[in-house]
Amino acid sequence: MVMKKPKIAIVNYQAGNLRSVQKALEWHGAVGIITSNPDVIECSDGLVFPGQGANDSSMKSLRSKGLIEPLIQFISSGKPFLGVCLGLQLLFNESEEGNEPGLGVLDGKVKKLPTSQKIPQMGWNRVIFNDFHPIIEGVPEGSHFYFVHSYYAEPEDSNIVTGKTVYGIEFCSAVGWDNVLAVQFHPEKSGANGLLMYKNFVKLARV
Amino acid sequence: MLAKRIIPCLDVKGGRVVKGVKFLDHRDAGDPVAMASSYDKDGADELVFYDITASSDDRSIMLDVVEKVAEQVFIPLTVGGGLRSVQDMQKMLEAGADKISINTAAVDNPNLIAEGADRFGCQCVVLGLDALRISSVSAPRWEVRTRTGHGGGQPTGIDVLEWVVRASELGAGEIVVNSIDRDGTLEGYDLDLLKAINEIVNVPVVASGGAGSPKHMFEALVDANADAALAASILHYGTYTIEQTKEYISRRGVPIRFSNLQLASNP
């Protein structure tokens, strides 16, 4: 029997980096659909919310495409959800980067990295996972992942913090609960460790 | 703690990787897709491709190379060479590049840095600086050179230190510092140049030109505090593997990334 390929929607709101996400999904036998269509998002087996870009223009773009409600609904649907970079930051309710409120799925604030460090943080840094999530299953402890960012999220609820990273300060580099994992780094640019996360994600979407 | 990066640099001409000395006398070094994939397995933190002929005919060849590499290599890719507009940048990004490196086009039209940074974010726009030492008697000075695809390039009269400050203010998110004097010589990076630049900008600085040994890389990363070291000849011709350079540097206490997983296979 041929296994059915899970359909993973990749939210397209002009936030870059979509093609590499798609290739990472395809690498593990999923179909990656780059889309801004709410119906496609609702029907997909899993959702990647990627992102690179600025808070305000991204929120405006999501709003104009009618994607805010579909995203919030998907997160509460229980189907696998992976947020990447800005796709983590936009889950919160406010950001120092702009005036537009985020999706407000999580309480907390997005803040600028300390100016004592080079900004953006660009390169490979360690993530210490302090909590288990099925998407990080098998990732060796203290693995490096590829980061490119100037802001970081500070959640109010420490129970959702899944991973931490040090760059001048210790910051939250991953949040997770049930079906949701959102990370500040780019798994699709993090070599074998990142590809393993996409493998786990596709596996969850198959069920 | 952020790891220091080791980056192989692949100069591409007519769809093949080549390597020259002081930007001339290019020898064939291999197939770009095969080399990219093997560097990824060996632990490269990132890959840089320069299209060193960059005629309009070769542009489509380069797009094809980037697409093929991006299909099987899941680490950051920087592409440069002959990109002159936001549209050129966009095409490369769509083909799978993560960052775009510009030199000549940025000197001719500095606003291109700002336009690129506005459109794609400053993390996407790399200044691929080509610097030539113009005095070494008292305090060293360096001049920005352009059109270096064919040798030492053209003089611009622009002082390197003034230019890097301006470029980073305009939105360049990283500076690759290519020393024309050291390129392919295996004599070590121009540490004075790296130190001088690192003191005046607050964006990542990548050392390039002159790597002949892991010790040279260590000097660039520690003595000159560069964020990354780029190398070509010593890696392309197998003098050292990336793993060997990383072990040398890591043993001396520098944070380095080692991947302890093999590439996850297709199901």
Write structural notes for this entry.
The complex is a heterodimer of chains A (207) and B (267). Chain A is built from 6 helices and 13 strands. Chain A has helices at 18-27, 38-43, 55-64, 68-77, 86-89, 191-206; strands at 7-11, 31-35, 46-49, 81-84, 92-95, 106-112, 121-126, 128-129, 144-149, 151-155, 161-167, 169-177, 180-183. Chain A has one domain: 3-Layer(aba) Sandwich (Rossmann fold), CATH 3.40.50. The radius of gyration of chain A is 16 Å and the shape is globular. In chain A, 55% of the residues are buried. By secondary structure, chain A is an alpha/beta fold. Chain B is α/β, with parallel strands linked by helices and 267 residues long. Chain B has one domain (5-251): Aldolase class I (TIM Barrel), CATH 3.20.20.70. Chain B has 10 helices and 12 strands. In chain B, strands 1-4-5-6-7-10-11-12 form an 8-stranded parallel beta barrel, surrounded by 8 helices. In chain B, α8 crosses α10. The model of chain B is unreliable at 262-267 (pLDDT under 50). Classes of the chains: A alpha/beta (207), B alpha/beta (267). Chains A and B meet through α1, β7, β9 and α6 of A and loops of B.
